[in-house]
Amino acid sequence: MISKKAIIKPPPKLTPLQKGSLGLLVLGIVCFSSWAVWGKKTTQVKTDNHKAVPVVVAQASRATIPLEIPSTGTVEAYSTVSIKSLVDGQLMGVYFQQGQQVKKGQLLFKIDPAPFQADLDRAIAQQVQAQAQVQQAIANLQQANDQVTQAKSTQVKDAAQARNADIEAKRYTHLFQQGAVTQEQAQQYRTSADAAEATVAADRSAIREAIASVGSAKANVQNAQANLKAAEAAVASARTQLAYTTIYAPIDGQTGSLQVNQGNLVKANDTSGLVVINQIHPTYISFSIPQQQLPELKKYMAQGKLEVDALIPNSSAPPIRGKLTFVDNTFDATTGTIQLKATFNNTQGQLSPGEFVDVVLKLAQLPNAIVVPSQALQTGQNGQYVYVVQPDRTVAARPVQVGDTVGNETVINRGLQPGEQVVTDGQFNLAPGVSVAIQSSNKSQ
């Protein structure tokens, strides 16, 4: 039996033309494969780019925006008076209830007046006595003046008599020399003249003594008048001390806790006092702002009084309106803030001293401002921007210059026009050129 072997023929030899055709065929196959892969990837990218991202948008609009500075404040009494007794004594009466609103001049306390009334009566008696002494001293002065007048009158009369006596003495001396009269007669007239001259000298001495008495009487009058003034001062002091036994409210306000009950002894100027009155109509609210905001504050203060709203936390009541009335002259170095105070009428008594409130300082109104919801703002390496929805429903990253933020809205100073739509929710999945599907805010939540 003959076995047959398979005969394997060698491949035929290719001509140069056949070799070239085969190379082109291989190159074509490779290119087709590459084109197929690239086309599939390109199709996938286009498909991904056309998959719209759901977003929530809002429209940039014009609005009048209030420029405000929020803060937290503390209510302070407009004035606080600690009522103290100015005299020692027993507290006889209390004429108000603790926490009561009192009016200026209203009776609050009465201290036992009996000891002070006795002091006043004694001082008045001493004053009456001093007045009598003044009157007596004035009468003595008048008498001394009269004595001076009398002494001068007597001197005038005696001086006239002395002159006449001297003339007679001289005449009789001449007659004696002529032998018309005796020496005894002449000597008699000379003696009378000398006696008259001595009387005149005595009158001069009496005048000097009377004038000295007038000086002493004047001193007595002055002394008596000084005593009278002291007595009058004592009466005024005693009357004042008596008046201090009745204590009235010096201001309108609300009383605090009573420190001393009726019947107890009180001491003058006791540190604890009797009661404290806080004036709360009007009242202050004290708050602070950062020092960086002071220049802007001063700018708007120059245009007029600034309003301040106070809101009581956890209260549905409307804001209470007041006026900025005080700006401190020193910064707090520890906090970098400056203290301000606003005055509120507080006619309804909504604000109480020590209460914490939310404060809004109103600087001005910014008209026709372009605003967008604050959540539309994004921050990148080059600053803040927003995603703007373009007519073809793709988004563009638009850099913006922002202004003040009021509530949930931010002022856009540059970069947007009214009516443009900005993305407020869904920005995380966005990039420039990505298509978006606008959703309602309810669907996005």
Automatic annotation (TrEMBL):
Q: Which residues form a coiled coil?
A: 120-154, 214-241
Q: Which residues form the Multidrug resistance protein MdtA-like barrel-sandwich hybrid domain?
A: 80-277
Compartments (UniProt record): Cell membrane
Q: Any idea where the Multidrug resistance protein MdtA-like beta-barrel domain is?
A: 282-364
Predominant location of this chain?
membrane
Q: Keyword set for this entry? A: Coiled coil, Transport
All copies of domain Multidrug resistance protein MdtA-like C-terminal permuted SH3, residue ranges: 368-426
Q: Which InterPro entries match?
A: MdtA-like_b-barrel, MdtA-like_BSH, MdtA-like_C, RND_pump_MFP
Q: Which Pfam families match?
A: Beta-barrel_RND, BSH_RND, RND-MFP_C
Q: Which NCBIfam families match?
A: RND_mfp
The UniProt entry's sequence similarity note says:
Belongs to the membrane fusion protein (MFP) (TC 8.A.1) family.
Q: PANTHER family, alphabetically? A: BLL3903 PROTEIN (PTHR30469:SF36), MULTIDRUG RESISTANCE PROTEIN MDTA (PTHR30469)
This chain belongs to the protein called Efflux RND transporter periplasmic adaptor subunit
